[in-house]
Automatic annotation (TrEMBL):
Keywords: Membrane, Transmembrane, Transmembrane helix
Name of the molecule in the record: Dihydrodipicolinate synthase
Any single Pfam family the record assigns to this protein: Cyt-b5
A GO term from the CC aspect: membrane
Transmembrane segments: 27-48
Signal peptide interval: none
Amino acid sequence: MSHTPPPGQQSFLRVFEPLSRTLENPVALGFLALAAFFIVRSIVMGASKGPEPFSMKKVPVTDTPAQRDFTPAELVAFDGRDEGTALYIAVKGTVYDVSKGRGFYGPGGPYANFAGRDASRGLALSSFGTEVLADINGPVDALDDLEPSEKDSLDEWAGFFAGKYVAVGRLVNAPGVEATDGAGPEKSEASD
Ligand code: HEM
């Protein structure tokens, strides 16, 4: 019995000869590996592109913290006073990394009042007043009492932040803190 493959199988195997020669050549092997890398990379990057570039799902995981929940008191740690720490603000329940806007929100910036805080009510009312910033030990501002025009204004700001900054998590009530229905703490405590 001969070990020579039948003629049909021989020509079939010949198709693979250039490939086996390539695999024996280290330079050609290098080129092949490089080409494979770029093909895989373009597939992976292509798959990550979508119609909503700023949706929560597309947050790059390499240079941003994982999505997480922040209580108002925890968010304060990200008020930008420590230059080595990211700068966060919350808008309508979403926490954004606004570190690239340090000039706006960092110490001495025009909007530093919002750093490490829930900026929702201040943005809705176009106010820098401390009375529009919810108590960090109280519940998350439910914002239910805003006028329709204030809600519209806040929605526009929410779109602005979603478009410019990376969302890093959600603003949530601390354990044991009850959600309120309506005004922010300061406003509801006001006597007038
Ligand atoms: C005298 C009134 C104001 C002036 C002259 C002013 C001016 C500006 C300017 C020039 C920018 C930069 C726009 C750009 O990058 O294209 C800006 C951005 C901004 N302003 Fe004002 N502003 C005023 C009032 C307010 C008020 C009342 C609020 C909210 C309480 C506010 C919140 C913001 C925010 C959140 C940004 C976006 C900063 C960012 O890019 O992250 N501004 N403002």
